[in-house]
Amino acid sequence: MPEAGAAPDARRSPYGRITVCARPARALALTLLLLAAAGLSRDGPMEAAHAAANLLGAVRAVAQPAPASPAPARTAAPADPYTPIPGFHGPPGSPTTVSGPVRAEPAHMPFYVATKGPVTIYLLGTLHVGDPADYPVGQPFRRPILAALAASPTLALELSPDDLIESQDDVAKYGVCSYACLPRLLPASLWNKLATRLRDNPAALDGIKKTRPWLAALLVETYGSLSAGLQTEYGTEAQLQNVYLRSHGKIVGLETLAEQMRSFTNLTHAEQREMLAQDLAETPDETVADVKELHRLWRIGEADAIAAWSTAKTERFASSRALARALDNRIVYDRNRRFVTRMLAIAAPNKPVFVAIGSLHLGGPKGVLALLRQRGFVVEAN
């Protein structure tokens, strides 16, 4: 049976809503956005679970323009641009050579152009955390990406900024209990494994007891993700909005808030337990290594390589292949089909749409790129 408390019916909106997550076998994106919203530090991200207010009280921050790709005007930036930023180790030494200043290059990122007659869809694979170096001053994205943004009347994200603001109430309502429900919802062995993982953070352990397994899994992932030294304010979506809002302003979502919530609340108890078990199958060091590898692959920009990495990871940590496949179908592949349906409804002849979704949604035989090819689009890397 599905977890008690289904998400509310989809709100009426012309795709003006957004989704929080781009999860392969693991829902990294939702976790990181929740974390960014709560404004948590690397030293204690799991304290988000202490209460719904702490988990989601600042989700509004994600809907605000994020810190621009490192800009001199930012008061929070170090006086010396080469002073190490917490969690990020920049290049040592002077930024110049005997030949003159060294020009930083933005991350390549997975970027594709899909065309069918006069209809054009630009697709950028995003990452919800990053390094400041991924978005250099003056040119945060490669020129083809910036040109595509400038040519597109609409920027389509997974969730719209409006829905992200509203999401705090729904996540608290459907992911947080009024009592310590988690120990009762998990087998003793799985709960003990989680308690051992969080033994050095009693506040986090106390708070996570009040979450349902799917949200507990996302919070566990968050700690490891930030421990990798990446920063949520340098996630791709936030940086895109900084660029896009300067000259445009129409940002829509490919998924409603209710649809996004149902991806998790409709998981069966067994599927939720599998989701958490996969996260706890990794050691903290393995989680950090995986996040860094995902970041490396994203910088290279090959969607199929990212998909292959994700599939291999699922096979490595799945405790039940059948449940792992069910999770992928609910959280990834069903949403891929929905994303394609919505982006085709938005796209119009000679009016390109710029789509930015999690990189893990793009590649592979069931990814968005393959689905567009099945619809007759010519899809090429750019």
Automatic annotation (TrEMBL):
Pfam families for this protein: TraB_PrgY_gumN (PF01963)
Transmembrane segments annotated in the record for this chain: none
Biased composition (Low complexity): 67-82
Region described as Disordered: spans on this chain: 67-100
Organism: Trinickia symbiotica
Domain of life: Bacteria
Signal peptide boundaries: none
Protein name: TraB/GumN family protein
